[in-house]
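Severity: low
Component: inverse-folding endpoint
Summary: output formatting inconsistent between runs
Steps to reproduce: submit the following structure tokens with default settings.
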């Protein structure tokens, strides 16, 4: 550890932090010998050293890895965006007394690859360059249970390695002042091994989110030497090292490595905790404050972790990460390609797509950050934000150009995100308001329930005599049918309250045939709760929010996003702990993250 005298007074920072001025002591860098580079990591680094043949270009190339997209692509054939089959979130509450033992299993050890947006955020915070547009054309991750950050689906492939190489080159090329950037991580620029080691140690520590070991530093030295042999100078060698580091598993993966010792679990060290906290609350690599707290061991204290969560939520990354959670949870990305026929929906225009998504996210910003309300308040708020074009969909008079706050029209019984045009349209099927699609969205995403697929050979077409009878009649037929009703009666009535909202979320008092639309229905029996009647959206939302399965689901969804894996039976006691902690506070999104950061499972890892 070294000291850094700033205008704010003495500040402690880890030895691998960017240099603010003056020489530093490499000997002060304490390396953890219990952190071996994995065999996969060694093979990856060996492959990266293939740049030697082309080092005089000053660019790291990965000649051993065939790519399908080429330098201008990123759209290799195996990377067509695909959704994987749903994996049911665990729904069995713990047995009475099962959680009396305070010991909690932290769950399986997983290596989490950075998602596209975590990669972009980390690169921007360290290098100061924006890769958002570059990554927009790259293949997205697979979706599991609504989320794109599930570790088991973030696997390396040859195509992906080729893309990482391309991204590393783009990122390094975008640095506008290479000399200044290199100067942040070294006190000298002579061709000595000491200068090269200092740069690798400092920048490598930041990108790896922990101090590098001596043998790890040594593996990057040949990059410097290869470039130096071409007479390109220290800064060009440093640029090549940067490209190598950006392709290393130490940067691309969030790993918590095996260590010696006994017992089923081990406590995370400060650097591992800093990484968990930073990506949990801000979706990016640890900043200087977290790096210092990691080096000092302060993050081993639950109170300090809680303090850091609250601080990180005030950074731009805090709100951006919450938005990412909401967008994934509500599958808002599907709005990017949704469309409707103008001859059927005269109010529709494809240019509305970005605004449909942004409305939901602005609403979340207001509820979760400005008002500090629980996730459940997203379902009950009577306020929204709209452009003049969106206000027209609501039937509201425009308040002026740009985004403005509006009170939702009470005559339409609108409240919360479930009555926003974006969510209604995203969950409304391919054209008109689809009862099955809307009900399954609520059943799965809001209540964490699931339903099996219809058996092969099931006849799904309604009887001919029901043709043209309307959505409600067709839905009631499926619910009452001896075969279909076995499943449909358990979820499809969840859509009845939203019948008046058409395929683009516009309120219609009558359907196309002139029949009155209805909002009444029977909330189905789910879990331990019996069926209950409701007369309109207001009563339906009240029943939904008060339902035990909904309340538990609103803990499960952010927990799954935070853990980056599907929940298991072993997580039920953790869910109960977090629910109890939220009940003792205002239950806000911030308090959820604080409760998780303070929870014992956050600070431990299972020995595999």
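Observed output (run 2 of 3):
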């Amino acid at each position: 550890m070294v000291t850094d005298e700033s205008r704010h007074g003495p500040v402690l920072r880890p030895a691998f932090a960017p240099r603010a001025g003056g020489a530093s002591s490499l000997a002060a860098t304490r390396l953890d010998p219990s952190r071996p580079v994995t065999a996969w990591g060694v093979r990856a680094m060996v492959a990266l050293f293939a740049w030697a043949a082309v080092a005089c270009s000053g660019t790291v190339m990965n000649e051993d890895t065939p790519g399908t997209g080429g330098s201008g692509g990123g759209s290799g054939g195996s990377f067509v965006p695909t959704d994987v089959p749903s994996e049911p979130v665990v729904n069995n509450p713990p047995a009475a007394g099962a959680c009396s033992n305070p010991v909690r299993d932290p769950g399986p050890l997983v290596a989490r690859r950075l998602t596209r947006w975590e990669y972009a955020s980390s690169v921007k915070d360290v290098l100061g360059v924006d890769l958002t547009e570059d990554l927009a054309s790259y293949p997205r991750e697979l979706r599991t249970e609504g989320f794109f950050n599930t570790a088991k689906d973030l696997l390396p492939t040859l195509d992906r390695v080729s893309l990482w190489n391309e991204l590393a080159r783009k990122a390094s090329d975008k640095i506008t002042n290479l000399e200044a950037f290199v100067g942040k991580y070294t006190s000298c620029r002579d061709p000595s091994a000491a200068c090269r080691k200092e740069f690798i140690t400092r920048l490598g520590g930041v990108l790896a989110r922990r101090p590098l070991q001596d043998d790890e530093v040594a593996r990057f030295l040949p990059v410097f030497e290869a470039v130096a042999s071409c007479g390109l100078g220290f800064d060009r060698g440093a640029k090549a090292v940067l490209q190598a580091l950006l392709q290393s598993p130490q940067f691309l993966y969030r790993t918590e490595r095996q260590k010696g010792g006994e017992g089923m679990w081990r406590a995370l060290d400060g650097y591992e905790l800093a990484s968990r906290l930073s990506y949990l609350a801000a979706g990016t690599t640890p900043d200087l404050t977290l790096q210092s707290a990691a080096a000092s061991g302060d993050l081993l204290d639950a109170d300090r972790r809680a303090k850091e969560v609250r601080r990180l939520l005030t950074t731009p990354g805090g709100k951006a990460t919450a938005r990412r959670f909401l967008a994934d949870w509500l599958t808002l990305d599907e709005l990017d390609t949704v469309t409707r026929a103008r001859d059927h929906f005269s109010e529709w225009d494809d240019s509305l797509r970005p605004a449909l998504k942004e409305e939901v996210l602005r609403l979340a910003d207001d509820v979760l950050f400005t008002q500090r309300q629980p996730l459940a308040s997203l379902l009950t708020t009577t306020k929204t934000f709209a452009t003049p074009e969106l206000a027209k969909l609501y039937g509201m008079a425009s308040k002026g150009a740009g985004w403005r706050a509006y009170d939702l029209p009470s005559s339409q019984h609108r409240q919360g995100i479930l009555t926003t045009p974006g969510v209604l349209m995203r969950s409304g099927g391919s054209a008109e308001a689809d009862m099955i699609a809307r009900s399954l969205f609520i059943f799965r995403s809001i209540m964490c329930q699931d339903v099996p697929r219809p058996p092969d050979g099931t006849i799904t077409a309604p009887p001919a005599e029901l043709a043209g009878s309307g959505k409600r009649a067709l839905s009631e037929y499926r619910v009452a049918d001896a075969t279909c009703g076995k499943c449909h009666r358990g979820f499809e009535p969840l859509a009845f309250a939203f019948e008046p909202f058409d395929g683009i979320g516009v309120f219609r008092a009558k359907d196309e045939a002139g029949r009155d639309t209805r909002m009444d229905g029977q909330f189905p029996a789910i879990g331990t709760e019996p069926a209950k009647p409701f007369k309109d959206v207001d009563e339906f939302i009240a029943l939904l929010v008060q339902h035990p399965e909904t309340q538990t689901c609103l803990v499960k969804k952010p927990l799954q996003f935070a853990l980056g894996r599907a929940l298991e039976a072993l997580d039920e006691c953790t869910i109960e702990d977090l629910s109890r902690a939220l009940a003792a506070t205002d239950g806000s999104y911030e308090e959820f993250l604080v409760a998780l950061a303070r929870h014992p499972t956050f600070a431990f890892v299972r020995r595999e």
